[in-house]
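Same chain as my last thread, 978 residues:
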Amino acid sequence: MKRVINLISLAVLTANLFAQSTPVEITPREQRTQLHYLSGRGCDDMVQWDFQCTDGRNAGKWSKIGVPSCWELQGFGTYQYGISFYGKPFPEGVANEKGMYKYEFEAPEQWRGKQLELVFEASMTDTEVKLNGRKVGSKHQGAFYRFSYNVTDMLKYGKKNLLEVTVAKESENASVNLAERRADYWNFGGIFRPVFVQVKPALNIRHVALDAQADGTFRVHCYLNQAVEGSSIRTQILDNKGKKIAQTTTPVKVGSDWATLQMSVAQPALWTAETPNLYKACFELLNKEGKVLHSETETFGFRTIEVRLSDGLYVNGVRINVRGVNRHSFRPESGRTLSKAKNIEDVLLIKDMNMNAVRLSHYPADPEFLEACDSLGLYVMNELAGWHGKYDTPTGIGLIKGMVERDVNHPSVIWWCNGNEKGWNTELDGEFHKYDPQRRPVIHPQGNFSGFETMHYRSYGESQNYMRLPEIFMPTEFLHGLYDGGHGAGLYDYWEMMRRHPRCIGGFLWVLADEGVKRVDRNGFIDNQGNYGADGIVGPNHEKEGSFYTIKQLWSPVQVIPVAAANDKNCAGGKNVTMIDASFNGEFTVENRYDFLNLNTCRFIWKQVKFPSAGERTDAAPRILKQGELKGSNVPPHASGKLTIGTAVLAEADALFLTAIDGNGQELWRWSFPVNRQHDTKGVTASNASSNSASKRVTFEETKDVVAVKANNRTFVFSKNNGQLQNVTVGAQTISFGNGPRVIAARRADRSLDQFYNHDDEKAQDKNRTYTEFEDAGIFAGLDVQQKENDLVVTANYRLGNFDRAQWTITPAGTAILDYTYNFSGVVDLMGVCFDYPEDKVLSKRWLGAGPYRVWQNRLHGTQFDIWANEYNDPIPGETFTYPEFKGYFAQVQWMNLRTQEGAVSLTNETPETYVGVYQPRDGRDRLLYTLPESGISILHVIPAVRNKVNATDLCGPSSQPQWVDGPQTGRIVLEFN
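reply #2:
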């Protein structure tokens, strides 16, 4: 069940990224900015510094620590999760240790006469710096921002220099603590991003801020570190092959230290998340003689951002749909300290779900992450910290300046965020555009500002109502994940509503990955702080949960549906399409949901396959009967068309696989269509009865309590007290499969019998995560045993209850065929028939059906019809991360083999619209999502939906609602025991 990753394509993408971020060498090295790292560049290459922590683990003594790092992950100080002290700037009991760093480095003699800046990419939190015993400047406050000091006059050239840094985990500034430290995420301490010396010529370009528009207009504000008499700025634009395509020279006004330059490029290749075309601009400071004093190179893209009020966000004149996710900078082993490779991993992971946008929650990310978004293509929402609390105005002004100046030239940055969930200081709203010539939209996440309504976690109905308001609806957080809930659960309903509404442009799911820390003080235990950090689509080490693939399918920019099904109004949008008929002619309706790319940039691979039967060897794989590949049809963005694969269904074929591959070689999605052969005349009884046993009759024995049916060395024991199968014996081995079939029906416990919230129950609010079973007052009416040719038919009859009849046909081969009828009328979240089998005796399962992940009623997408298998597992949500989960509800199951300590149980399901339940999903220890009735091994006509962290199931859309059922339900399964 392991998915094959296209490693070649990933390698190509990564190679392109590194190639595009390589500096263009136009001027000699001594005229270019050079970076001399005093630390490592990330968690993969830390440099050892001397270190002492004032409190917590390993405190009060000098030792070594890797820099950059979060000191808790290196064995120092105290772990602390921020929300524990919510709303309190200086609470009693907060972890407030300090870390003291020392590091010696040599300043080469060649640096003399240059300008030297000591740069910290980020440090948590208040940071004081000394060089050779002298204070280099004022204390920095604010954890996630680049800051620097001019140390030109403090260095000893050609000698060793002593750098001393004191970092306080808590800030002396109340507003910093409230904005950054009292949040729903881990609070670490330390120099967690790189430290380097930036070496520039004495006269240099301090900063450039550019604006490259889709029409080829290129405008730049260029700032010098000081006025240079008679100076000018020469600017060259190079394409991605290094070819110069434009050049201009602009004089700097007399006595000034800045200049604005402008030029134009004809028909530039535009930047979007789908077409991340990049250019380079080389800026050279020339003296009055035309000599190059300094050179800087910036990577950029030509693109235009436009907000059309009450309409949408337009990129290059095209209204885009935002398929986004919130993302923390995080790894379990290193906390907030990442590396270039890990930042690229995150971008590739996001794009693998067919997303096109990311929100940096709740602080600016590493520069390498933005570089990866530029090169691989993601729209970025860049955020000033402020989780409910907000910076005071003087502090915020400085931090915004640093953030915007660092990130302003990244084409991927589309929005600026001023805080989160009322953590915005409105006095700061105007600060962003002071440093941004592109004047990107500034938003208030969860607020209504600048034409965007970004309210979080509204129910399905509330979301519809928000779209009736005049502002563009773009929730910056929705479908809050928790364990296996949220994210993909309910996404189909939300997304169909959102993408079709003229005032909604999409939104951002919460959140990419669990923030589970590897506790070095607790033997490596992954600590999610209970349910607080367990919100991810993937686990802390990027273990993929079921929602990962639901999102990947629903957000695929290419959607495919067989033409016959597309013409069926009940199958609109692909919601229920799972099968094709044997008469299928190879024609699909295809929808191009790209914003910019034609479908002909994709290719499609199809395969007709035959699956092994339930009785074949356990390693038997599907056999490819025929396959082919074709280019996508000429279908423009936001349009639909036809795709014809030019093949009819083969007589042997069990399924058709169709895979869409994008222009980068990445799989968008693989659709699996089983062939519906329900009109075939093959009978199960005949197919399972062997010729050796065909002439043998099935026998039975009766006692006062049981009927024991014997066939082919197997004994089936039926109770005369309730009509249920008690157990099965194969030879001398008893297989404890029994206590069924019995009807199981349940509803959410806070609901009335009419579906709605039970206002008559004072404790209803406490029950919306639990389920109540319906009692069955039926009466067993007796067993009837009849010989039918060589088979024996045992019928259990019932009256005045939910069960009507269970008819067992035992064949001479020892196969048991169960035809059952039950009836139920009312509102249910779970309904079907079930058997017991001891969970502790199960070893593994293998099945033909949708997989490899379980489904919920509101998360049916994201599985593929195929052969799947996995060993028994029972992960604790939020604590252990083994996926796919063994237990749960599985769709489209044709057969399932359970391997147990007692033998093998094979179940063939001849009622395709039902689900097979393998016990019931396990919730976290806090049981915040569900407590479901025990259902053993079950065949279910109705399965429950799953809620998210914020909204109960009835608030998550039509697919999440309970079902009104009325009347009889029938089904057939075939059981074999070995």
